[in-house]
Amino acid sequence: MSEINTFLIMLQPFLSTAHFRQLTLISEALLMMQGRITMLGISRWTRRGGSYRTIQRFFTTPVNWGFLNWQLIKPFVSNPSGVLLIAGDATTVTKSGKETFGLGRFFSSIYSRAVPGISFQVVSL
Question: In sequence order, what E strands does 6-112 have?
């Protein structure tokens, strides 16, 4: 897990001490988990300091993820030492209900039509 910690250390100046510690705990737990990911599951896989209530507090705290993502990739983009490859992928997860944040209708290639659900876009550098 030291690899993820060395990468996350770049975010420490932009987060409070408690929020950075929580992010580190949750990131380590997510990389170890198998199967369904829930807040209760994350709290079971974290080491000391990752109680269920702590996980809830982390996910209810507003975070500017766009800014943090930019802080992670900025050193690599501003001083390129070779070829940079950018890859992106979008996936749609079907979901019923009305209360989920981001719920909408998105095209699914599996169903060949727009379906109700959540769409995730991932970009890799």
Answer: 87-94, 104-108
SS3 95: coil
Pairing relation of β-strands 113-124 and 87-94?
antiparallel
Instruction: Note down pLDDT in tens along the chain; length 125 residues.
Output: 578 888 888 888 999 999 999 999 999 998 888 888 888 989 989 888 888 999 999 999 888 988 988 888 888 788 777 787 888 888 888 887 777 777 888 888 888 999 888 888 887 77
With contact defined as beta carbons under 8 Å apart, do 63 and 20 qualify? no
Whether the CA torsion 89, 121, 51, 41 is positive or negative: it is negative
The answer to whether 3 and 19 are in contact (CB under 8 A) is no
